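Quick one:
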Amino acid sequence: MSQHKVFIDSASWECLSNLASCAKISKYLTENGHKVVNNPHEADYIIINTCGVFKKSEELSLELYRKYKKMKMDKTRIIMLGCLVKINRELLEPLDAEKISFDEMHKLDEIFFNKVSIHDVQYGFSENTKTNLTLGKNVYDLRGTILFRPNTFLNHISKKFLLNYEAMMSDIEQHHKIFVEIVETGTGCAGNCSYCVIKKAKKKIQSKEPSTIINEIKPHYGGSKKILLIADDCGSYGIDKDLNLPALVEEIQRFYPDASISFNFLNPMWLQRQTKQYLKMFKNTKIDSIQLTLQSGSNKIIKRMNRHYDVDKVVQIIKKIRKISPQTFLYSHFIVGFPGETMTDFLKTLFTSIYFDANFIFQYEDRKGAESTSFPDKKPKSTIERRYLILLAFSRLVTLYTLLKRKHVSST
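Output:
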């Protein structure tokens, strides 16, 4: 039985789906008698989990390849894995590496299989797994960014602000959490957003059975009672099985009544389509946080993005959630400078951002294969950057105000 030493790195550790696939591969290797090492010089294989969401993550994937190509031993083989293999395979073709997309994961069995197939691995994991995987790697420092940088002045004058800030950062940095994917690795969401290329890299959604999810939580429950559900769109869960996310949460709560739950991404479409079920979920379950990917405050832009909800209706639901579940941290994503975005559209986004505790803000960029690359009325780079900085500064002020006024709820 062959045994190998394997080093794993990622171009996007902050991507929870990317992190989860690294954790799955790590467990798969261990269960097959191999050793995951922290020193690439020791490795027989170096696995780089790529990312192609943004140009920057694409470049980082290549940067990691060049880095490990220089330091690897003659016998060491490099495997380029994941999203970028499908999104821009031509970019990777010249590289001296095995290329494996998410729908080719079975190829790992040709190299590493001894006892357990990659498709048979169950892999709910804890914060310790994340810490071990990211040790010595290039991990994004949220507290070093403008939006989440500590405010020394407010820390000194308001104990409540300090406690709320630490609770929010503990939540965003995923401390004390159990991580579990609710869909199979390499499957995406039900959306078809005009700016997105991830759908090129992943198969149609394949929801896990509730019993599987329950079992993946079990080994880690007790060490923590905070469960983080992971998917490219958690709201898409169950559409292939006549299930839905609120029903899954109800089932998790039945087995783990003391648990609190977070979601990494949720398309607002599901709030609007299943309002009663979601409000009931927030009422009956402790929801720590949710990343509601609104993307724009303008319905015109939402339509051009090929997303299917009404911003005003979503905001009204958010207000109800605030009353039902005031302890929940609500985060959103916004893209600025989308083709056709006028100043009025941008201002609508600016004012909509006040309904969230914090916002993750992105500059629009064309990505090969995305429908939006062909859209007219592209915004100049200078306009996009200016709007990005304005929304970033505004969101920073909103977050500071929110943390000052909200009732403190411990995150530990």
